[in-house]
Amino acid sequence: MIEIFMVLGFALFAMGISGVAASRNFIIMVLSIEVVLVASSLVGVSMFSVSGSGNIILLLLSIWGIASSEIIALVAIYRYLQRAEESMDVTKMSKFKG
Amino acid sequence: MYEYIFGIIAVVEIASATGIFLFRDVMHSALALAIMFLVNSAAFMALGEPLLAIIQLFILVGGVATYLFVGVASDHQSERRHTNFAAFSILSILVFAFVAYPYIGYFTGSPSAQLTASSISAEFSSGYQLLYVLVILLFGSALGSILLLKSAGEKRRV
Q: Quick one: which of B76, B72, B92 has its CA closest to B21?
C-alpha cells in the first residue's frame, strides 16, 4: 500500500508544476513550488521506506532549506511590490525589468 | 484498516492542494497549504517515519506556514481569478502521465523498478555535499534579497 503515497507524490508534483504554469499571481506560483517540494519529499520518503537503504534525512533537510528560503524571498519581494504599489499579476510586473 | 487511513490521507492532501488554486483569497490558499503540510507529515507517520514527521511539522507548519501567514497572507488579497482552471487541469493530467509512466513497472512489481528505488537512495547519500552547498547558497540569496530591499527602502526614504 506504500505505492499509494508514490502515486500521491506524482499527482502533487503534477499539480504543482501545472500551478506554476497556469497561475498569474506571484504568490500562488511560489506556493505551487512549495507543493512540488512537498511532493518530492513524499516520493523520497516512500522510496526510502521501500528500499530501506540510503540516508533520507539529507534530502529532506535540503528540501526544508529550499522551502524556507523560498518563503523568505517571497515575503521580501512581496513587501517590495506592496511598497511600490505593484500588482501581484506576473504579466503586469514592470519593476523587475533591468 | 491501514488502507482506509492511507486513502483518507491521500484524498485530504489532494483536496487541500487543489484548494490552493481554487480559493481566491491568498489567506485561504495559505491555509490550504498549511493543511497540506500537516497531512504530509501524517503521511510520513503512516510510512513509519515519526521523527521525520515531527521535524516536518515543526519546520513547515510551525515555521514556514506561520511566516507566510504573518508576512503575506494576512493582507487579505482577493484577486479576481489567479489560476486558469482548464489549463491547470489539462496540464496536471499530462504532467502526471509523463511523470508516472516510467514507474508503472514499479507499481506492478517488475525488478527494474526496484533497482530504481535503491539507486535513487544511493544517489542521495553520495551527493549530499552538493545539496548542502545548494541550500547554503539559497539561504544566502534569500538573506541578500532582504538586505537589498532594506537598502532600497532606506534610499527611497532619504
A: B92
Nearest to B121 among A1, A51, A66 (CB): A51
pLDDT digits (tens, 9 = 90+) for B82-136: 778 888 888 888 888 888 877 766 656 554 444 455 555 555 555 566 666 766 7
Residues 6+ apart with CB under 8 A from A23: A29, A32, B21, B82, B83, B84, B88
pLDDT on residue B115: 43
Does domain A2-92 match CATH 3.40.50.300?
no
**Domain definitions of chain A by residue range:** 2-92
Q: Which residues of B touch A11 (CB under 8 A)?
A: 14, 92, 96
**What global pTM score does this model have?**
0.78
ipTM of the complex: 0.89
> Which residues from B are below 8 Å from A28, CB to CB?
20-21, 26, 29, 82-83
Find the closest chain A residue to B1 by CA distance.
A1
